[in-house]
Amino acid sequence: MDASHSTRKRPRQTDSEDDTTSECRDEGTYVEHPSLYYDDGNVILSSENTLFRAHRSILCKASPVLRDMLEQKAHEDRKPDVLRGCLHIALDVETQVAETLMRIVYNDLRLDTLTFVTSQLSLVTSIFRAAGKFRIERTLVEVYARIKYKWPSDLEKHDRRIALEERMNLRGPIGVTLLGEDGTVVNTVRPTAPSTRRVAFIHPVHILALVRSAGCRDPEILTPLLYAWTCAPTNLAGYDRVLHALPQMDLVRYIRGLEYLRCFHAQCMAVSPTANNLALPGDHEYQCWPGIRVFWADLGGAWMDTNVVFAAAREPIEAWGLIIDRLTIHPMHCTRYNICSGCSDKLITMMKTIRQGLWSNLTLWFAVSLF
Ligand SMILES: [Zn+2]
């Protein structure tokens, strides 16, 4: 279960004010963690009813928050809370988060294995809770690096990532408009089951909520996550709950960006490029441009077709990429559109510009840097 959704329990309260020695608590209610209880440790951390025994110097080095807590404990006026001869701190986090904290502190967590598959959701959540609350910067930096690898801000890296996931069969149908055998534009839906395959990865809105909870404001992280959110399904269990966890301004960003993104895509799709803005040479305005107009109308028509427009609009950057790839493999002069290879190249260049425009404007459209 996702740790962020579990009921937060209050940690065991110390009762040192009532006791002459604070060691007379009911020890029977505590359980030692099976692997994170170091017998030679000199500090005990507790979460719910689990005890972790650790080394003060290691805790202080790893986390400024733990260091402050330990220093404050040592210098407060009242008798320090002592358990089993060690300074005791009751952590205000769930056991899983405390366990993750200990594993981070003792370098027992390989963050380079994070691939953000759904089975890692509770681990990723507890890493953010632990590293965020106890300000362990190196861990946050490592997790952000993994997020950037999965959701890159660079379009070429994004394309490589998508291609890799396609090869691994982890993606459903992206663009659904392909050129048919005779070179005409037809709709083809790949025989895959998107709803079952897409959930192989943690929904980007979960990751967005986590990075926001850790105070992330980096456009290079936020923008690709917001785009990935617009591409992802919205009918998953727990989706509503995650939306509630997001800052309200991120919902505003999402809606704003979504509208700009889809409008720009629809506009480019609907309005044929002119011979002038394609910079067609001389006579090609008469030889090739009529074919370009028909091709563009067919392309727009295919994208507007029932059910297909939704898929193409949902992943517009991938849909344009797919068409560009298809046109590169099957040049237009081989098709019934009668477009020469030079004009076909110009058309491809125009599509690449549209695609790059979609990608480059995302930060602006989602207003990532504005508020
Ligand atoms: Zn031409």
From TrEMBL:
Membrane-spanning ranges: none
Task: Return the annotated region ranges for Disordered.
Answer: 1-26
Q: Where is the composition biased (Basic residues)?
A: 1-11
Query: Which InterPro entries does the protein's record reference?
Result: BTB/POZ_dom, SKP1/BTB/POZ_sf
List each copy of the BTB domain by range.
Answer: 41-108
Q: What is this protein called?
A: BTB domain-containing protein
